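All the exercises in this workshop are built on plain-text protein records. A record pairs a protein's sequence with a compact description of its fold. The structure tokens are whole numbers drawn from a learned vocabulary of backbone shapes. Once this layout is familiar, the rest of the handout is easier to follow. An example says more than a description, so a record of this kind follows.
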Amino acid sequence: MQAVQIDDVAAYMQTVGKRAKAASAILAAADTKTKNQALACIKQALFANKAQVLAANAKDVKAGQDNALDAALLDRLVLNDARFGAMMASLDDVINLPDPVGEMSHLTHRPSGILLGKMRVPLGVIGMIYESRPNVTLEAASLAIKSGNAIILRGGSEAYHSNQAIAACIYQGLTQAGLPQDVVQVLATTDRAAVDSLITMKDTVDVVIPRGGKGLIERISRGASVPVIKHLDGNCHTYIDKDADMDMATTVAVNAKTSRYAPCNVMETLLVHQAVAAAALPKILTAMSDVDAAMQFRVCPVSMAILADSGLNLSPACEDDWYAEYLAPILAVKVVDDLDAAIAHINHYGSHHTDVIITDNYAATNAFIRRVDSSSVMVNASSRFADGFEYGLGAEIGISTDKIHARGPVGLHGLTSEKWVVFGHGEIRT
């Protein structure tokens, strides 16, 4: 299966948008039972076609290896039995989650006699552009269906065969449940012109969600005339406070950096209070190197002095290292004077994604969670928990570091908005 050659991409995209808009009106009126039935049918189709899906993925992985695809992207591309099982578990989670559509809140009787409230409604049509991860095709589709939104999906060319195989199962499930296939459309072209059209289709697309590297997201943000939910990168920090339990700090920091390198919730900078740096740095960094001998550390001058005889792979950090999202066995390390300095560093250099403090001090905890300006702030836990699945959202369509509409992992509620609803008994305004 090869990407379809489309002569007039703009016209193709206009057709896709109009079909999505029409399908969104049908889906918005569907009840929870119908939407859950569609998800169950999709799961059944995926199980029945598992061999075909994995074979399509193997073809993409082989092409990625042949084309020297970046290691982080290649890791994200791979589907195996464990990841396929996780996709199925994610579908079950979305099925079992409460349906937010139609949910009423803030019901209040006004002096005029009216009853005022807010009701959750779908956003409408979502356009999503993403790289590598074929599981995103299913996660995004399932969240869109459950939240009553039509979705247009444009995956990366490196995952084309995987995405089309998964899409075939999605279409089959939607049809079996009596919903239009146009509720989910996985674009048949990998032409970049399709992205340029998608992010400017204000008449048919209500929101765009880019999920991928910083370059992709910057490009989408610059060119979009449709609202965008985004995060540019994941420069996540772990700060070891002077009152930290050092065994806990080591366990959490090692997990946050070495469990995987590709996800955006991986720790990229380690900050350590100067009062405990001499004890903490050799312990934590040696433990990381024991997990992965390829670990490299970009360190500040104070850290370099402490670790000079450690035998670790050290190099002096430059200014760019404090901003870096490495997605690799590389860690920036800095000794800070105190809690205030750690918070200032995170808010200046960080990407407002996920930041962690390790401490047994209540006052330090309270200051950190109040003053660190990130979409997820954690105490004594690995940044790797910043994930829709771990947050009980069933899955996530992405992570937002914006402050308006949605922030952090975006699940069902993040794919809805609210409208005011007024109930009266013939009241008139005087």
Q: What stands out?
A: The chain is about 40% helix and 20% strand. The radius of gyration is 24 Å.
